[in-house]
Design brief:
Layout: H1 2-31, E1 37-44, E2 51-61, E3 67-76, E4 83-91, E5 94-101, E6 109-118, E7 121-130, E8 133-143, H2 150-157
Antiparallel strand pairs: 1-2, 1-8, 2-3, 3-4, 4-5, 5-6, 6-7, 7-8
Amino acid sequence: MNEIVIAVIIGIITGVISSKITDILKNRKYMHSDFSGVWRDEIFEKNSKRIVKRDIFELTHNKDTGKISGYFKRYAPEDDKREWHLSGGVHERDLVFAYWATSKVSESKGCAFVSVKEKDFLAGEYFKEKDNKHIPVKLNMKKCRGVKTIKEFESQFLGNVNVTEA
């Protein structure tokens, strides 16, 4: 009888430990990607260096498959509070994704192509759809080190945002 109880206890302990190890290994492929994490962008006025919009992204990159997913929110200008989902892929130093509005009120959708220019800095364009045309818009993305979620970014930084600050 004691041997059965000991075997059951050892089985439970082994199951819990192996489950935790599996979770750690599964999350490792996301956590150690340079693309995973919180990013903020700068969207520029056409033919100008003036920043007109800013968004905050929360990205998850699976290094095994190259797939990237996540969502982003507009935080400047302050009266534009839209949110989007995104899905795409990473190939070498390039990130390509499609995005679509989370709300049925907004039909905002498009795609983006950005490349690594230096550590924690991506540059490229996003293409927004307007009147059945795809309009390119300059886009820079900077990684927010030390911030793990959009909520954490909002609590630490919003309230002191100037849309035109570089």
